[in-house]
Amino acid sequence: MNFKIRRAAKEDCKDISRMIMELAVYEKMPDQVKISHEELERDGFCQNPFFECLVAEVPEEHKSNEGFTIIGYALYFYTYSTWKGRAVYVEDLYVMPEFRGNGIGTGLLSKAAEIGKKKQCVRLQLSVLNWNTPSRDFYAGKGAQDLTVTEGWHTIRFDGQNLDKLANEAPKD
Amino acid sequence: MDFSIRAANLDDCKDIARMIMVSGHVRAHLETDGFSKNPFFHGIIAEVPEQHRTREGHTKIGYALYFYSYSSWKGRSIYMEDLYVMPEFRGKGVGKALMSKVAQLALAAGCHQLNFTVLDWNKPSMDFYLSQGCFDVTSSLGYHCMRCEGEALEHLAQL
Fold first, then answer.
1. B44 touching A, CB under 8 A?
2. Who has greater pLDDT, B23 or A140?
């Protein structure tokens, strides 16, 4: 199948937002999506962007059933390890179901890895749900290690009222 | 015990490197990566007055390193990469103060989450964090941390 991977432009944010919701539905947590294309436009295309994004595009003749030509995306940002240095974190990787099996997911992930490599990143990291076997197999096939299983790493989070409470306890300057 | 928390600067890199090394790992290029035009991380330092300095004469006795991240569901977030207090200064609220400062900086920047990772066998740390009101995303939601590096990453970048 003919497809192109390119850097997202501000105008792509509506399509990216649409696909973020599709991915959340797939992950069985659609009620968790609180941001829209407006936050993506503000945070991804400012002076010091919080993330970068790649989109996968198909020609008009291959558009989706609903008429979309932007049919996949990878949203990522740069992170840091005090042990190993610069890294890339792929927050989202998604291809619309009707376009899977054509190497588009691999294309998006590889492009993110290539971009990271140009910035001297030595790691690419991401999270995957334990029940998501197709994705776990996909990443294992690319040589990714499951650090939760092999080393016992858990992601811990403060949000909502717990984050507010923690912040209120900070020492006064 | 009297201590202060402040933003790290270029001159703190030697002390940050010292404290990273104590935990047994080789440090990355802190000066270039943290203190140039588009830094990959930011740092805060915990300092004690001269009269409380360590036997070796150090007054910088703890640090936290963090960077901005993003959730496609919730927006701006902060990731705390390191939180460390020298053993002789623990149990005095320094770790809590460092973490609270990161939380305060998170809110000031419009972030909705503060994330970090902990090893599941590290019971003292896990108990400390849970007592402060966080939740274990891996245990409760099932997210696993995945990593690609070395030859696998090289191969992926060339596909």
1. no
2. A140
